[in-house]
Amino acid sequence: MAMLCWGFADFLIQKSSRKFGDWESLFVITGFGALILLPFVWNSLYSVLTNQTDELFILLVSSVFIFIATLLDFEALKKGKLAIVEPIWSIEVPAAALLAYFIIGERISGLQILLIILLIVCLILVAFRERTFNKKFFIEKGVIIAFFGSFLMGGANFFMGWAGRISNPLMVVFFTNVFMALATFAYLVFKGQMHKVTEHLRNDYQLLLPMAISNNVAWVAFVFGMSLAPIAVVTALSESYIIIAVLLGLTVNKEKLHSHQRLGLCGAVVTAVILAVVTSS
């Protein structure tokens, strides 16, 4: 579910960020998510805020990480090309896996590690849409931002997964949404841009509403997945949304795949299925 929804969400986020800016797009996504999830977490909200445990602290750390990482990802999408940014985002997987290993001692089997590495390689092949690699890749717009965003998003993935294990996954997504919605609201008010948001919601809801729905469904599914399976495995599988983006390009935009993309696409699908089966068994 996370893979499917993020495949659509990133395409819509890129359009929204370029049209309305990072802060407004993030406010719409997080404000919508907070409102929709509130009824599901209302009864346990007071206990979370007053509980003298690590739960609130981890939720706050998750919120800070995801807020900064999301802004960097949005900026990378706004300035760069999907074909350039997507391969770099695979760094999220080893970043999240290393944090899970060193902080909570989460271990995965040698076969799972091998499958994750193979999946990352296949996804990079799928995402790289040029015929040949050029050293100019590293000076393309959005590359540096995407690198920093990937490391931080790997950290955010880990903390969201950890929070999902000690708290309700719906609470995790709600809490981070509220944190980011308040931060972006304050920024938009400070910049005097809040009046534009209502206008854009009224005139461009066909873009903003599907973006908000798909992104929030992806995060809920992602946190639920990490609360049940190893964080490294779930992060690797969720990165397979690149497959959805490529398939959308094939069907909607009538794009043609290079030979290395076809090889990567087949390899990624097969590897993702095997990884899921091995993990669930």
Overall structural class, as computed from helix and strand content, comes to: mainly alpha
- SSE order: HHHHHHHHHHHHH
**Integer average pLDDT:** 83
Helix content: over 70%
Number of helices: 13
Low-confidence stretches: none
If you had to describe this structure to a student in words, what would you say it looks like?
The protein is mostly helical and 281 residues long. It has one domain (2-280). Helices cover 83% and strands 0% of the residues. The protein is built from 13 helices and no strands. The radius of gyration is 19 Å and the shape is globular. 48% of the residues are buried.
Brief synopsis:
By secondary structure, the protein is mainly alpha-helical. Helices cover 83% and strands 0% of the residues. Helix 3 crosses helix 8 and helix 4 packs antiparallel against helix 6.
Give the topology.
Layout: H1 2-20, H2 22-50, H3 54-79, H4 82-88, H5 92-104, H6 110-127, H7 143-166, H8 169-190, H9 194-203, H10 205-228, H11 231-238, H12 241-251, H13 259-280
